[in-house]
Amino acid sequence: MKQLIIVATQVTGGKGGISSALVGYIDGLNEKGIEPIIVTSHGKNMVVSWFNAFFKIMLLSIKYRNKAVFWFHCGPWLSLFRKFTLAVIPRLCGALTIGHIHSPTFSDYLQTSAMSRLFTKLSISPYQHLIALTPWWKSLFIKHSIKKTITVSGNPNNQDYCDIAQQYMLNPKPIAKDKKRIQILTMARLVEGKGIDLVIKSLCKLPEHFQLVIAGDGQLASELKSLVNQIDLSHRVTFLGWVAGSQKQALLSQADIFCLPSTYDSFGMVFIEAMAFDLPVVAYDWGPIKDVVTPEVGLCCEQACSNEVAAHLLTISHDLTRYSGNGPKRVLTEYTPQVVCENIAMLIR
Questions:
Q1: Position 163 in a domain
Q2: Exposed, middle or buried, 177 (CB in 10 Å: 0-12/13-18/19+)?
Q3: pLDDT band at 345 (very low <50, low <70, confident <90, very high)
């Protein structure tokens, strides 16, 4: 078996989908007896991190040569460029190089201008193999004549979340017939494109017993809090800031519906985390999201507007039992570390 070297952001302590997904990947690889070497490609000091990663990869490439698989996790432009500079060395040394595309901006790069497409294709040229997060992504790559071997592989939940999904399969979440309070949970970075403003505005069109909890931080935090005050919803909206660990799990277990009508997600780790806790999901129907949030686990808005968000939240609240058990089942079928990591294990073998 070849030595696996993962080149990515911090596996623990990072914020965002790649960091969360990597925890699940490590769980799955360890269970299959694969111990990867992890090279952190960027940290607080970007230049120092890059130099450290460059020299580590150079030494590993010389040591293992064609007996290694280098797995690069790629984000937006700067990440793509950084990984390009790091991937050239192992490719020249005969190692297998894999590019794993995580950023929703990759879609923009391929669909804006000819120059953008050219540079995008150049940025992934060192990779012999690509991993696409959903079938939609693979179709997009093929449509734009990316002639590489492409494997579709969704991100995994970590093992703790999969164990929780198993518990909900055995003991479904109790649902009261006449709920006096519907708790909507939104969990994300508070940045443009996440649609959190739409969730806030949707409360104006919903009965008073619908409450919203927002977990996350980011540059729009002050603006979103001002919006809540402007439309007089402070008694129905709670901002918690960034949450993790047991606090995050507690929020997911207490919620009734998860809502994030994001137009800026390449996969949506938080959707499969919510599914593990047996939460129906309201999302936005674009690109890869409709591959993840399918009709049995929730509803997708055709338009990014508060009216449609409110309508879908109301529809789901009237029939929560319809979705009971579907999320955990989907997680255990498609998004466990063991299932997802089999694709990687095959490449190593």
A1: no
A2: exposed
A3: confident
What's the token pair of residue 258?
Answer: 């998860």
How far is residue 124's CA from residue 284's CA, in Å, rounded to a whole number? Answer: 28
Number of domains composing the chain = 2
pLDDT-based confidence at 42, cuts 50/70/90?
Answer: confident
Q: In terms of Cα–Cα distance, which of 294, 325, 304 is closest to 261?
A: 304
Note whether 142 and 185 are same-domain residues: no
Q: Starting from the edge strand earliest in sequence, which strands make up the sheet with 237-241, in order?
A: 237-241, 210-215, 182-187, 257-259, 281-284, 298-301
Same domain flag for 100 and 129 = yes
Distance of alpha carbon 142 from alpha carbon 116, whole angstroms: 17
Domain residues for 280?
A: 173-324
- Look at 12-21, 135-144, 234-243, 321-330 and tell me which has the smallest mean pLDDT: 12-21
Residues 6+ apart with CB under 8 A from 140: 107, 110, 287
Q: How far apart are CA 127 and CA 72, in angstroms?
A: 9
200 shares its domain with 141: no
On whether the CB atoms of residues 165 and 276 are closer than 8 A, the answer is yes
User: What does pTM read for this prediction?
Assistant: 0.92
- Tell me the two tokens of residue 78: 């700067």
Give 349: exposed, middle or buried? Use CB within 10 Å, 0-12, 13-18, 19+. exposed
In a domain, 234, yes or no: yes
Tell whether 273 and 344 lie within a shared domain. Answer: no
Flag whether 143 is in a domain. yes
